[in-house]
Write a structure and sequence with these properties.
- By secondary structure, the protein is mostly helical.
- Helix content is about 70%, strand content about 0%.
- The protein is built from 21 helices and no strands.
- The radius of gyration is 22 Å and the shape is globular.
- It starts with a helix and ends with a helix.
C-alpha cells in the first residue's frame, strides 16, 4: 500500500514538473499558433463550400460524405469510411443567431460547419501528433515547430482540411499509429489503427512502417498482430455495406488503372500536381536525404515515399492528394533540410545553437 501511494505521489510530482517545464511551455506556444492557423483554414473552407461546384474543383468525394451524413446510400470506397460523417451527426445543431446577417448560410453550409468542427479538432490533433513524432525522432523544438508550419501551409491542408471529407481524420490516426510504433506502445497502436480504419483505410500503411522499424522480428510480429482487430473491423464494414462493383480497392481490378495513371503522371499537369503536394518543401526534403544526418528510423521510413508513389500508380485518385499521404516522412525531412541550410548559413556567426536552444 505504501509503495502504491509513493508511486501516486511520484506521478503527481512528475506531472506537475512537466506542466511547469520548458517543454510544456514550448508545446503551448506551438498549439496556440496551430489553433490560429487551423481556425482560419477550416472556416475559410466552410464559408466557401458549395456542393454544386465541388465535383468541378476536385472535391466530389465531399458530396458522398454529406450524403452519408443524411443517411443516404453511397457506393464505392467512401461507404467504408463512416467515422467522420457519424461524428458530424453527433455535433449539436448550431444556434440560429450564427446564421444571420452576413452569415446567412444554407442547409449544406450548416452541415459543412458540423464537419468543420470535427475536422478542426482532427487537424489540431494531427499537428500536435506530428510535433511529437518529430520530437520522437530527436528533432529540436525549432525543427518540430517548422514541420508543423510546413504541414499547415501545404496545398492539400489549405484546400480541403475543413471540407466534409475524411482526410484530416486519416492524418491524425495515421500519425498516432506512427507514434505508437516509434514509442513501442502496443495499446495505442491497437486504438489508433482500430478506430482509424473507420476514418480511412489507408492507415494500413502502418504495416510497411512496422516492417521497416528497428525492432526485432518478434516485436514486429506482435505489432502486426495488434493490427488484426482493425483489419477484421474493416472487413465487417465492407461486408455490411456490400462490395460495390464501382470499387476496385484491394481487388485485382486496380491494376487496369496503372497505365492511365502513369500517363497522367508524366504529363505537365500531373507533374505539377505531384510537385504542389508539398511545393518547394520537396527540395529541402530531398536535400536532407542526400546530404544531412537524419535519424535511422526516419531514413528507413523514407521508403514510404516510394510506397505512396506505387499506390498513386495503382489508384485512380487525385495525384496531388494521394502523394501528400507521404507527409509524415516528407515534412520531417524538409524540416531537417531547412535546419541544415540554416545551420550552414549561421554557424560561422555562432548563432545557430542559440536559435536551437530558444
Amino acid at each position: 500500500m505504501r509503495s502504491f501511494r509513493k508511486k501516486i505521489r511520484n506521478l503527481k510530482t512528475d506531472t506537475m514538473a512537466w506542466f511547469s517545464s520548458k517543454d510544456f511551455k514550448q508545446l503551448m506556444v506551438f498549439v496556440l499558433v496551430v489553433v490560429s492557423f487551423s481556425l482560419s483554414i477550416v472556416y475559410t473552407n466552410v464559408k466557401t463550400y458549395n456542393p454544386q461546384l465541388a465535383a468541378y474543383i476536385g472535391h466530389d468525394d465531399s458530396i458522398d460524405y454529406v450524403k452519408m451524413y443524411f443517411g443516404e446510400p453511397v457506393w464505392g470506397i467512401r461507404a467504408y469510411r463512416p467515422l467522420v460523417p457519424l461524428l458530424a451527426r453527433l455535433v449539436p445543431d448550431l444556434p440560429d443567431w450564427l446564421f444571420t446577417g452576413q452569415r446567412s448560410f444554407d442547409l449544406f453550409t450548416r452541415v459543412a460547419m458540423k464537419f468543420g468542427i470535427v475536422n478542426f479538432f482532427f487537424l489540431l490533433g494531427a499537428c500536435v501528433a506530428l510535433y511529437f513524432l518529430q520530437r520522437g525522432f530527436g528533432m529540436s523544438y525549432f525543427e518540430s515547430f517548422l514541420g508543423g508550419m510546413l504541414f499547415l501551409s501545404s496545398q492539400t491542408v489549405i484546400r480541403s482540411a475543413g471540407l466534409p471529407m475524411a482526410d484530416t481524420a486519416f492524418f491524425f490516426f495515421f500519425l498516432l499509429c506512427m507514434i505508437s510504433i516509434q514509442r513501442n506502445n502496443l495499446w495505442w497502436l491497437l486504438f489508433a489503427h482500430t478506430i482509424g480504419v473507420l476514418a480511412k483505410e489507408l492507415v494500413i500503411l502502418s504495416i510497411p512502417l512496422i516492417l521497416l522499424s528497428l525492432f526485432p522480428w518478434r516485436r514486429k510480429a506482435g505489432m502486426l498482430f495488434v493490427l488484426v482487430p482493425g483489419l477484421l473491423l474493416y472487413g465487417v464494414v465492407r461486408v455490411k455495406f456490400a462490395l460495390s462493383p464501382l470499387d476496385d480497392y484491394i481487388t485485382g481490378g486496380t491494376l487496369r488503372y496503372c497505365p492511365t495513371q502513369l500517363l497522367r503522371l508524366i504529363t505537365p499537369n500531373g507533374l505539377i500536381n505531384v510537385f504542389l503536394s508539398f511545393g518547394f518543401a520537396w527540395i529541402p526534403a530531398l536535400y536532407a536525404l542526400a546530404r544531412c544526418k537524419i535519424p535511422l528510423l526516419l531514413k528507413r521510413w523514407s521508403w514510404l515515399i516510394l510506397i505512396i508513389f506505387m499506390g498513386v500508380l495503382l489508384g485512380r485518385g487525385d495525384l496531388g492528394r494521394s502523394t501528400f499521404n507521404a507527409f509524415p516522412v516528407v515534412i520531417p525531412l524538409a524540416s531537417l533540410g531547412l535546419s541544415c541550410w540554416l545551420k550552414k548559413g549561421l554557424e560561422e556567426k555562432g548563432r545557430f545553437d542559440e536559435i536551437q536552444r530558444a
